[in-house]
Design goal:
The protein has 13 helices and 37 strands. With 676 residues, the chain is α+β, with helices and mostly antiparallel strands. Among the domains are: 251 residues, Beta-galactosidase, Chain A, domain 5 (Distorted Sandwich), CATH 2.70.98.10; 196 residues, Aldolase class I (TIM Barrel, Alpha-Beta Barrel). Strands 1, 6, 7, 8, 9, 10, 11, 12, 13, 14, 15, 16, 17 and 18 form a 14-stranded antiparallel β-sheet that branches.
């Protein structure tokens, strides 16, 4: 798979592209970011091993770290290498997202392609792209025929001292763990993104981009005190089975002076290939309600029976609720037969008329969202997948939520030698399966929301029908988790999980004391924070998850959920501290309105926010939803204050965030607000 060549398109401009090929033997090679602040260098140590270093404004960010791939047969890491050739290029282009955090994305980077040769013939290349906000590198291997990768030799030896926010890579429930904060040296094997704040104030995030045809990696400690990229293996021990020529995913290191700099980065997206689907006008972002939360509460069941949730009658009630409030979609879980096992993805329960409900939704200006839960039995789903997606397409259902609820290591797949095996969610098997699902759905103009997925690595750029995914500890853990999500959880998510891409977190719970099976649970936020999450935690599909009657009981606060869009012209992180608080502003796609969300952890705090993102010369009506007097997530979560203020670009807001609280604001140009 060759590196992407620059192209000139309707939405892109291209600056200088000059490729320089230098043949010979070199002790080292280096490349700088366009602004000159970041330097990535490649060198060969005294043992003939290739490695790299990263520096930022003269400070070491990643100390010398090994590069290489170990194959099952031949080409092991014992070969002695030399730098055989260097190619360089400079890019500066813009491209447009069909939907996203911002419409126009700038891709400005310098590139160096280093060819590494050995006497043993185990040649490979390292392609490095350096942006002003970080760098990414990948391996490219020529040749032909099948090949098995035993491991990567890649190290990412982060320099400290520093604090790290991470979640365990080998936990029982996939990516659904609370994040831990530890000294960098105490970090265990961790899923990425991993976010590191150094004692000198620099912020570093480690992740990967364009995870295709490969196993995901965990950042895991080495005996020398550094870290390496450990690939999730197949049951037989092989990490990746592929065919030459191939390219690995990008290993990414984002660098910023502060927390907001990490959030404002487009590095992961820019390292993915452009849209491969062509016209994707049929992909429709929006908000959705659904038959979902009442099952978590134990009021209804997914399976058929006297309390079955997915009935035609119940679905029509949710469709009416969505249509009455301008929501785009209605999710129906439990519509298909087999919740007692095994699943059928083509046959509905007798009390649910799939095509009739879908037609009723269209009449009301709403679309139905299908649901395919697998419980980890991927083989069964693969066997039915084409037929299942055909059913949705025939019924005019443009979206599906897929699910892979299973403990890590319990996905039923095929091992490297063809045997049935239990594999992990971040294995090559599951990575390949998810992409097959997304591609098959795209052929039928169906968009996908993947739950219990592999981590997000920016593939929504290449496959814009991959709208969003779960992949973290969402709000349903208020019911199912023995330890509820603490107030700091969503603040940490903004600076960790969200660096990978959109998340279907299901914000907007209005009953903050839900009851399941007679036991009262707690959602550890204020009501205002639930509103702010719609702005802070980005997803093009945002659920309105609570029961309709809970929204109708608080219509004034519910108005913000009705108003807030999910597709944006621009997004800007304004302020924040990892684990403490975050402030994000977004401008509506194709409109003049701005929205702001601010959330905090268990500490109440005052945050000063200059409104410099607003357009100059325009007076806005700020519709402000903030924590009320004495609000507190624990004993007064429903206290909310709603007010209007005239504001301009020169204004500064002093936000009072309660413990576990937040503020949500809609800014409307004054003339439009008066007309309405």
């Amino acid at each position: 798979m060759p590196g992407r060549l620059p192209t000139i398109g309707a939405a892109a401009t291209l600056f200088t592209v000059i490729t320089l090929l230098i043949a010979g033997c070199f002790p080292s090679a280096g490349v700088y970011s366009p602004d000159g602040a970041i330097e990535v260098s490649v060198s060969i140590d005294t043992r003939g091993r290739p490695g790299y270093e990263i520096r930022y404004r003269g400070k070491s960010i990643v100390g010398w770290s090994r590069l290489g791939i170990e194959f099952l047969e031949g080409g092991t890491g014992e070969a002695r290498y030399r730098i055989a050739a260097i190619e360089r290029a400079t890019y500066d282009e813009t491209w447009e997202q069909p939907w996203g955090e911002r419409r126009v994305v700038r891709d400005r980077h310098n590139e160096m392609l280093v060819s590494l040769a050995s006497a043993e013939g185990a040649d490979f290349r390292v392609r490095i792209r350096v942006f002003d906000d970080g760098t990414g590198f990948r391996y490219e291997v020529d040749g032909d025929g099948p090949v098995a990768i035993r491991a990567e030799l890649t190290e990412i030896n982060l320099e400290g001292p520093a604090s790290a926010w991470w979640q365990p890579a080998d936990g029982k429930v996939r990516y659904e763990h609370l994040y831990e904060k530890t000294p960098l040296g105490d970090m265990g094997a961790a899923h990425t993104p991993v976010t590191v704040v150094r004692d000198d104030g620099l912020h570093v995030a480690v992740h990967e981009a364009a995870l295709v045809g490969y196993a995901a990696y965990a950042l895991t400690p080495t005996a020398s005190g550094g870290f390496r990229t450990r690939l999730r293996p197949w049951s037989g021990g092989i990490a990746v089975s592929t065919t030459r020529p191939f390219a690995t995913p990008w290993r990414t290191i984002q660098i910023a002076d502060d927390a907001s700099g990490l959030l404002n980065s487009d590095l992961v997206l820019n390292l993915n290939e452009p849209n491969a689907l062509g016209d994707v006008s049929w992909v429709r972002p929006g908000k959705y309600v659904g038959i979902w939360w009442e099952m978590h509460l134990g009021l209804k069941t997914w399976e058929d029976g006297p309390r079955h949730g997915a009935t035609t009658e119940n679905a029509k009630q949710y469709i009416d609720f969505a249509a009455d409030h301008g929501f785009e979609g209605v999710l129906v879980e439990g519509w298909n037969q087999g919740w007692h096992g095994p699943f059928s993805y083509t046959e509905a329960y007798d009390d649910f008329d799939l095509e009739g409900v879908a037609a009723y939704a269209r009449e009301r200006g709403v679309y139905l969202i299908g649901h395919h839960e697998t419980y980890g039995d991927v083989l069964s789903y693969e066997a039915q997948m084409d037929a299942a997606l055909d059913v949705l397409a025939r019924a005019g259902i443009p979206q599906v939520k897929t699910g892979y609820v299973a403990d890590a290591g319990r996905l039923l797949g095929l091992g490297a030698n063809g045997e049935e095996a239990h594999v992990w969610h971040d294995s090559q098997y599951h990575v390949d399966h998810l992409l097959r699902n997304v591609r098959a759905a795209a052929r039928r103009r169906v968009a996908v929301n993947t739950h219990e997925p592999v981590k997000d690595t920016g593939l929504r750029r290449t496959y814009p029908n991959w709208l969003t995914r779960e992949g973290s500890r969402g709000q349903e853990f208020a019911i199912w988790g023995q330890v509820p999500n603490p107030p700091e959880h969503t603040v940490i998510l903004a600076h960790t999980r969200m660096l990978g891409g959109p998340m279907d977190f299901t914000p907007g719970m209005f009953d903050l004391h839900p009851v399941r099976e007679g036991m009262q649970k707690r959602i550890q936020t204020t009501l205002a924070k639930q509103l702010a999450l719609y702005v802070v935690l980005y997803s093009p599909m945002q659920m309105v998850p609570d029961l309709p009657e809970h929204y109708m009981a608080r219509p004034d606060a519910f108005q913000f959920i009705v108003d807030v869009p999910t597709d944006w012209e621009e997004s800007i992180a304004l302020d924040g501290v990892v684990g403490d608080f975050v402030v994000v502003a977004r401008r509506e796609r194709g409109g003049a309105d701005w929205y702001l969300g601010a959330i905090t952890d268990e500490e109440a705090r005052k945050v000063s926010v200059p409104l410099t993102m607003l357009d100059d010369g325009i007076t806005y009506v700020g519709e402000i939803y903030s924590d009320g007097d004495a609000a507190h997530w624990e004993d007064k979560p429903y206290a909310i204050a709603i007010e209007r203020k005239l504001l301009t670009r020169d204004s500064t807001l002093e936000l009072q965030l309660a413990a576990g609280g937040g503020t949500a604001i809609r800014f409307r140009p004054q003339e439009e607000a008066i007309e309405e």
